[in-house]
């Protein structure tokens, strides 16, 4: 029993990574916020907390897929913004919804091809795509506005069978993420590739194809988060996705997934996303400025990455 607890606390000998300690930190954060602010346990604030956590959770799951294979995707925020801009084109839902996901898949495919075929470093490849996509989004919708199809807003707002819709989204996305990461051959291959591409290739795993699929899936998760945000704000916004690139990486790393690849877990990513949401909620309750909040998140990312074991400089 003691040995099992030690492995859970240290992440030793496990490809699940270190996730129990972040979970304990999240629990402590909840207690501190409840003691410090009477508004924290207010029903409306808790519902807002869930709604704020869902898009980051969705994007973080996609981000985890590429981090498992030693990658990184800085274009996810731009894909979120592009998705809201496409959905706000004042066109029927059956037109803009497929268009948004096709555009996201194209972005992911370009990222994957640049990394696997052109051998561009993931940071450079996805940073370049971030700038390209953000520029296209600004051309498409320079300022916030437009009308979101009713089908999108209906799927995000209100309740179904008495259940708050963001909760429904969270459950469905978690089930999808669990199936992809821990319940499929695809997820198993991602862990194997992250642990050692040469060894995975020797066992017959198509590493390039799986890495390409990971980048496409990551962009599709970002588009899904964009749909959620578009439904919540009922308009397109060319800048709404900006914070999510680094926030999603921070959430994944905070949950114990190794940026060097091959080690991580869905429960860790969920924990990291919830801690980030709690942090944002707490800072909002304390009326801290957006500049301070950004600095705090950056500091957390720096500390978390610095604490991760690495044999050489890089991811």
From TrEMBL:
Entry's transmembrane regions: 17-35, 47-71, 91-113, 120-140, 160-181, 211-234, 288-307
Broad class of the protein's primary localization: membrane
Membrane topology: Multi-pass membrane protein
One Pfam family of this chain: BPD_transp_2
Keyword Nucleotidyltransferase: no
Keyword set includes Glycosyltransferase: no
Compartments (UniProt record): Cell membrane
Keywords on record: Cell membrane, Membrane, Transmembrane, Transmembrane helix
Source superkingdom: Bacteria
Protein name listed in UniProt: ABC transporter permease
Organism per entry: Marinibaculum pumilum
């Amino acid at each position: 029993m003691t040995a099992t607890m030690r492995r859970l606390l240290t992440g030793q000998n496990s490809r699940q990574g270190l996730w129990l300690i972040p979970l304990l930190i999240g629990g402590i954060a909840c207690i501190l916020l409840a003691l410090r602010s009477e508004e924290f346990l207010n029903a409306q604030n808790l519902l807002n907390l869930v709604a704020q956590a869902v898009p980051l959770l969705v994007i973080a799951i996609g981000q985890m897929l590429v981090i498992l294979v030693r990658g990184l995707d800085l274009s996810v925020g731009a894909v979120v913004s592009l998705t809201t801009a496409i959905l706000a084109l004042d066109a029927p839902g059956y037109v803009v919804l497929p268009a948004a996901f096709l555009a996201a898949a194209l972005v992911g495919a370009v990222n994957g091809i640049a990394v696997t075929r052109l051998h561009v470093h993931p940071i450079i490849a996805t940073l370049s795509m971030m700038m390209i996509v953000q520029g296209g989004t600004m051309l498409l919708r320079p300022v916030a506005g437009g009308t979101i199809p009713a089908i999108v807003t209906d799927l995000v707002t209100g309740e179904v069978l008495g259940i708050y819709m963001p909760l429904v989204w969270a459950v469905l996305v978690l089930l999808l993420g669990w199936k992809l990461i821990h319940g499929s051959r695809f997820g198993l291959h991602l862990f194997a590739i992250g642990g050692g591409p040469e060894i995975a290739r020797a066992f017959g795993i198509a590493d390039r194809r799986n890495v390409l699929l990971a980048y496409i899936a990551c962009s599709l998760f970002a588009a899904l988060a964009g749909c959620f945000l578009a439904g919540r704000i009922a308009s397109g916004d060319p800048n709404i996705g900006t914070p999510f690139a680094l926030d999603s990486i921070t959430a994944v790393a905070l949950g114990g997934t190794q940026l060097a690849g091959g080690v991580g877990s869905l429960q860790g990513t969920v924990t990291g996303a919830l801690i980030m949401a709690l942090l944002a909620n707490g800072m909002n309750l304390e009326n801290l400025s957006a500049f301070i909040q950004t600095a705090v998140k950056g500091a957390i990312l720096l500390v978390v990455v610095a604490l991760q074991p690495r044999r050489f400089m890089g991811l």
